[in-house]
Amino acid sequence: MRNKNLQTIIVFLISTIVSKLVFCMFNIPNNPIYIVICTFFLIIAIENIIKNGYLLRSKKIAIVLGIFSFLIDIAIILDNKIVFTGDVGDSYIKNVFLEFEATDLLKLVLVFIISYIVCLNIGIMIATRKINILTVNNTEKTTLKNDLLFWTIFTIITITCWSPFFLTYAPGSVLGDSTASIAQGLNYSLLNNHHPVLYSIYVGFFMRIGRAFNNYNLGVALYSFTQLIIMSGIIGYAMLWLKKKNVKLIYILLSWLYFVANSIFARYAIIMWKDPLFCSFLFLMILLLFDVVKSNGEVLKNKFTIFRFTILSLLIAFFRNNGFLIIFCIYIILLLVYRKKTLKFNIILGATIILIALIQGPVYSKLNINSPFEEAVAIPLQQIARSVAYDGKITEKQKEFINQLLPEEKFKETYEPMIVDSVKWDPEFNKNFLYENKIEFFKVWAEMLIPNFSIYVKAYLMNTFGFWSTHMQNWYGLADTYIIWDKIESNNDYNIHRVDLIEKYFGHSIEKYFKEPTYIGSGTLFWIMLLIIAILIINGKTKYIISLLPAILTWITIMISTPVAFSLRYVFVLAYALPIMIAIPAIADVDNKTE
Among 200, 197, 548, which Cα is nearest to 356's? Predict the structure, then answer.
C-alpha cells in the first residue's frame, strides 16, 4: 500500500510540475481549473503507461513513437516562434519569426515529455486493439446488384444533401483562377499551362454549351452540378469500398456524415477550381493502391486495374502541374516493389509516363504552352526576398542580379513572408529577365544559401507555415462561394451572376442556414497522416504506406513549391481521404493476399 501511495504522489508531482511549467513557458492563461484538468489527464496517462507498459516492450514501438513525438515537438516549438496576424498579406514587420532563446530548450523537453506520454498511450490502445471498426464473420452475400444499389443510395443521398447548397449559390463559384480557365477554354486567350490545358479544355466544354444558348450562367451551372455529381459518386464508391473491406456500417455512416455535415465539401463541389477534381482522382488512386498492396501486386495483372490506373494517371498528371511528379514517383515505387509480377502493367504505365512527359515537354514547347517559371520558384524567390528585406549577406555581384529582378527597395516594400504574390505580381518585377536567366537565378540563390542560412530557413518555414503547423488554419484558399465580378469593379463580359434559385422560385432563401465552414488546418491533417504511417509501421504493415503515396507526395510537392502559406485546396486530398486513412490500419490488419 505504501509503495502504491508513493507511486501516486510521484506521478502527481511530475504531472503538476510539467503542467505548471507548460502553462508558464507558453503563456497559457494561469487558470487553476485548466492546470487541474491538465494535471488530471497527465496522471491518468502516466498511470496507464505504468499499468500497461508491458505492451510496449517492443523497441520498434518505442522508437517509432519517439521519432513521431520528437518531430511534432519540433513543429510545436517552431509554431510558437511564428507570430501570424491572421492575414497572409501582412508585411514582414507584422508577420514575424521570433528569435530563439535559451528557454526554448526547456520548452522542447516539456513538449516532448507530454507528446511522448500521449503517443505511448496511443501505442497501448493499438496493442490492446480496443477500437475495432471491422465486422466479424460477415456473411452478407456480395453481388454486383447489391453493390450497385449500395453505391447508388450513398451517391443519391449525397447529391440530395449538397443540392440545396448548389441551388442557393447557383450557378456556382467563379473565382479569379476560374476566369483564366474560362478564357482559355473559349479560345479568348492563348493556352498557358499555369492553369492546366486539359482542365481549361474541360471548363471550355461547359462554357461552350452556355455560349450556344447565349447564357454563360448555364455553362457554369452545368460545370458545377457535373462536378457535384462526380464527387458524390466518388464518395458513394468510397462507402462501397469500405463495405467490401468488412468495415462496420456505423463507421461507414459516420464517414458519409463527415462529407455532408459541414458545407466545406459542398463548397468544393461547386467551385470552378481544378483542385476538387484533381484531389478526387488522387482519392481514387489511394483506394486503388490499397487494393494493389492488399493483393501483393496481383491485381496489377488485371486488365481493368491497368485501365483504371492508366486513366487516373493521365487525369492526375494533366489536371494540376504537380500531378506528373506524383504519378512518376508512384510508378517508380510500384516498379521497384512489384517489378517481377507486372510486366504488362510496367509496359503500359511506362509508355503512359513517357507519353505524358513528351506532351508536357516538347509538344507544349512547340505549341508555346508554358508554365510560369516564377510559380515554380516561389520559395527560392521568397528566400532571396527575405535576405534583401533583412539586409542579409549579399555580394555586389548578387545585388546587381537581384536588382534586375526587382529593385532592392521594392523587395523591402513588397516582401510578405506568407505569400509570394506581392513580389511576383509587382509591376516592376522583371519576369522576362527571370525567364532568360533561370540558371543564373539558381546559381545566385545557391551562393546566398550558406551566408544567409538562418534567413533562408525562416523564409521557408513562414512560407509553408500552414502545411506543417500542428493547429494553425486560415480562411485563405479554404473555400469561397462568390463570383469574382460581384466582388471587384470589372467588366463582366460573360454576364455571369449569382442567382439564388430557391429564393427565386420559392420566395424564401435558406442561405442563413449555411454557416461558414470551419475545418482543421492542412498541417493538422498532415500530422494525422504521419500518425497513421507510424501506426502502420508499429503494426508491421509498412507496405501499406504505398497506398498513402498520393497524399504524401501531394504534401511533399506543395512543400517544395507552394506560393502561399495557407491553402487547403492544394492538399485537399488529405481532407477528402481522412476517413479512409483512419480506417487503413484496421483494414490492413486483416492481411489476405486476395480480396
Answer: 197
Owner of C-alpha cell 506521478: 11
How is 111-165 classified by DSSP, letter by letter?
Answer: HHHHHHHHHHHHHHHHHHT----B-SS--PPP-HHHHHHHHHHHHHHHHHHHHHH
Vertex 545 angle, CA 288 and 138, to 5°? 60
Query: Does residue 380 have a cis peptide bond before it, meaning omega lies within 30 degrees of 0?
Result: no
Rounded distance, CA 119 to CA 132, Å?
A: 19
Distance in angstroms (rounded) separating the CA atoms of residues 327 and 304 = 18
Distance CA(336)–CA(34), nearest Å, equals: 52
Query: Three-class SS string for 19-60?
Result: HHHHHHHCCCCCCHHHHHHHHHHHHHHHHHHHHHHHHHCCHH
What is the distance between the alpha carbons of residues 172 and 191, in angstroms, rounded to a whole number?
A: 24
Distance between CA atoms of residues 127 and 305, nearest Å:
35
3-state secondary structure of 82: strand
Adjacent-strand bridge partners of 483: 174
Given a contact cutoff of 8 angstroms between Cβ atoms, the answer to whether 416 and 95 are in contact is: yes
Phi-psi region of 178 (alpha: psi -120 to 50; beta: other; left: phi over 0): alpha
Q: What residues form DSSP beta bridges with 174?
A: 483
Q: How far is CA 466 from CA 111, 364, 569, in A?
A: 20, 33, 12
- In 325-477, the DSSP E strands lie at none
pLDDT digit of tens for each residue in the chain (595 aa)?
A: 667 788 888 989 999 998 888 888 887 887 888 889 999 999 999 998 888 878 777 888 889 999 999 999 999 999 999 999 999 999 999 999 999 999 999 999 999 999 999 999 988 887 776 667 887 666 566 788 999 999 999 999 999 999 999 999 999 999 988 999 999 999 998 888 888 999 999 999 999 999 999 999 999 999 999 999 999 999 999 999 999 999 999 999 999 999 999 889 999 999 999 999 999 999 999 999 999 999 999 999 999 999 999 999 999 999 999 999 999 999 999 999 998 778 889 899 999 999 999 999 999 988 888 877 888 899 999 999 999 999 999 999 999 999 999 999 999 999 999 999 999 999 999 999 999 999 999 999 999 999 999 999 999 999 999 999 999 988 888 888 889 887 776 677 899 999 999 999 999 999 888 877 778 899 999 999 999 999 999 989 999 999 999 999 999 999 999 999 999 999 999 999 999 999 999 999 776 443 3
Spatial neighbors of 225 by CB under 8 A, at least 6 apart, are: 166, 172, 270
Q: Which residue do the cell numbers 453481388 mark? A: 143
The residues near 191 (Cβ < 8 Å, ≥ 6 apart) are 184, 197, 200, 367, 369
